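Good morning C.,

I know you're traveling, so I'll keep this short. The sequence:
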Amino acid sequence: MPSESSPLVHLPILSTPSMELVSQFTEDTYAKEDRICERPTCAAKILKGDPCFYIATIDPNKPGRFVCGSCHLRYQKKAATTVRPSSQGIGFRMPSTDQYQPPRPLPDLHGIRRSVNAAQRTATINPPRVIATSHGLQDGRSGPILAIPTGSSWNQTSHRLGVPVGYTANHAAHASQREYWSKLSYTMGSHAETITLDISAVHDAGPKRKGSRGTPISNIHEGKKDIHAQIDAPGLINIALDTILPKLLALSPTFAWRTLEFIVRDAGWVDLSTHPANRPYFYSECWHTSKRGGKESKVFKSKQFALIVVVPESQWLKYEEWLEKTEEEIHYLARPLARDVTVSPMIEQRHADLPVEESVTTSKRVRQRSDSIPISAPSTSAPSSGLSPPHKKLAAGSAFCTPSPDREGLKQALRIGGTVNLNVKQLLDLQNENVQYYPIPTRPLSVMLKNAEFLSYNIETVECLMGQLTINLSMPSMLGAGAFKTAHPGWLTLFSPPSSGLGSRTRHEVAVKRAYYQAYPPGTSKPSLKFKIGHYALADEVPKLLKEGNVLYWAQSLLQLTYDFIDRSIASASELPPFQIPQVRFVDGGLAFAFGPLPAPKAGSSMTSSARTVYLVEELIPGGKEEFLKYVHNVDSNPLLDESDDGYDLALFFTFTQHVQYVKTRGLAFISDYQGSSELLTDPQILTHPTVTQGNDIFGDGNIEGAVSEFEQQHSCSYYCEWSGFGLRPFKKQQDSNSGDDIEHTATGSDRDGAEHGAIFE
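The C-alpha cells, ready to paste straight into the viewer:
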C-alpha cells in the first residue's frame, strides 16, 4: 500500500477466485507532505493535506503515479480507465457494457458514524454488530463483496463505482476486542450492570388491604436475578408474563384466560405499557452519588424492583363464577340417585366390591378435585324425580355413595392415629424471644476508610429490625461449644424482613450463639471435665459478642478486598489462570437483644420491658457437623489439613488470600482461623501487626500478633500465589540450618471457637 494515498485496490480471495475484496482507507487519500503531481502534462504542486490519488499504469510491472485531485477526476472520466481483473489475466482490457454493474445505493453515513462511536465508547457492554452484505454479479459470479467504509471518501468513490456496504472500520480491532470480551466474561458476575426483579400476581376484585393495590392470587410470587439494567418496558413486560402465566394457567388449566388484558405495573402502580420502548426503565434509579477523593461521581448499584401482573376485575369475577359452576357440576356428577326404596342386595354387593377412593372437596374459589366414584342404580328402578337440583352449598352425601374402607387398613390407621406421639420435653425446650435485631453490614474497605463511623461494627449506625427468635435449648440439638461460645439451632422471623440476607424469609434457620464461662463445682480442680455452663451478666456479655460481630464485619471487608484484587488481576492478565477460583463468603449475622417484661418498681403501676439477653445470630451453615472443617489455624499461615484430606485445595486458597491481604494492607493485617463449609465460613479471626495493637486489646484474644510479624517466614506459597497474573512476590519458609527442614509451628491450646459448629460439647 503506498504511504501517501491508496487507490481502490481489488484483491483476489484465494479460496474463491471470482470474489473480490474492495478496501480503501480515508487517511491515505490525502497528501502527508508537499509533493508534485506526477502526471507529465500537469506537474502541479500538491500541498500537505490536499487530495492525492494513486493511478496505476497499463503495464503492471511499471510503477504507478501520484496525481492531484483534478488529474484523478480526468482519469476517471476517460473511457480507457478501468481496474485490473482479480481472477483473469493481468493484461489490459477495454471495458464493455456488460462489465458495469447498476449503481449501488449510497451507504448510510449516519449508521457508520454510530457504529464507529459505539466501538470507541468504552462504557458500552455490547460490541457493534457485523454488517455483511451479499451482491450478485452480472457476469455469472456470485458471493458476498465486503467493503470497509472510508468516511469522507464515500462522496467521491462509492457513488461512482457502486461500492457495496460491508464491514466497518471497527473490525480492524477484532482480535483485541475478542480478547477483551473473553476476559470480561470471566468477571461478568461482579461487573455487569444487572438488577433483580420481584414478580407477583394480583387481581383488582374483592376488598383490598390497607396500603395495598390488589389482592394476591394464591402464592404466585417469583424472583428473577441477573436482568440487564438497561432493559426497557416491553422487555420487562415479557419477563413478567413469561414468569407468571405458567403458574396462573396451572391454577385452572381449563379456564380461558384472556392474557392480553393483563396489565404489568411497577411498585408505584405505573402501567409499563405506557412507557416507550428502547428506553431503559429502571436504569436511572440504579445510579447513586458517591464521594471519592473529595469528588462526587455517579456509581452504579444493583437494586431489586417489583413487577406486578394485574388481572382485571371483570375477568377475575368471571373466573370466580366459572370456578363456582365447576364445583357444582363436579359435586352434581358425584352425587348418587336419591332412592326411597331399600337398596337391593345386588347393589350392595356391587358397592362393596369397589375399591376405596379418596374424595377431596375444597372450599369456594379454590380449585376442587373429586376422586370419588359415582355409584348409581339401574335406570329401570330410578324414578325421574329422584334427582334434586344443585345447591350452592355442597350437601353431605348419603352413606350409600361413600365406599367402606378396608377393614385391615382402617384398623392400622386407628392404631396409629389413636396415640399422640409428641416429644413434650423438646417442645418445652423451645424458647421464644421478642428481639431487636441489628444486622452486620458488608462494606468495602475503601468506604470504611472514608467514614470514621464505619471503621467498626456499631449498632447505632445500622437499622434496627423487630422480630421473634426461637431457640432450641435442648442438649441433643446443640450445635457445639467452642472456647467461650455455645451454639444452638434456632429460627429468626423479622416483622419487616429485608429483601435479601438473613431474615429475608419467615423462620430463617440460624445458629444462635452466647458467650459462656466454665463454672466448676466447689472442691473440684479446673482440669476436671465436669463443669456447668455459666452465662455472663448482660453488661459483660454485650462487649464480648459485639467484639465477635466486629471481627466478622472486618473479615467480610478483607475477603471482598481479596476478590476485587483477583478479578482485576484476571481481567488485565494475558491469559486465564490454569485453576478455578473458589467462591466463598462469610455468613450473614447480627446481634439480637431479647426484651421481656420486668416487674414494676411500685405496686399497681404498669409493667415495663427492658433488654435482658443478647445473642449473636448467624446464618446456619447447611450440612451439619459432617460438612464443617477448619482449614487454617490462627497461629499458622499454612493449611491445617494434610494433602490427602478433603478440602486441602480450598485450604491452599485461604492461605493465598492471607498472602494477598498481607500485601494489600502493607503487612498490617489478614484473616485467619478459616473454618466452615466449602461455601460458607464462620468465626474468623483478624490478626494484626504489633505496631497496630500497641498493647491494646484489638480484635479479641485470638489476635496472635506474632503470626503477622513472622508471616513471610511461615507462609509457603502455593500455585495460587505463584501464578504470574497475580504478580505476587513469593515468600520462602525459613530453613533450619542444622537439619534443612522447614521450621514447623504447632498449634498449642484449644481451638478458639471452631467447635461451635463442628465439635460436640461434653
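Safe travels,
E.
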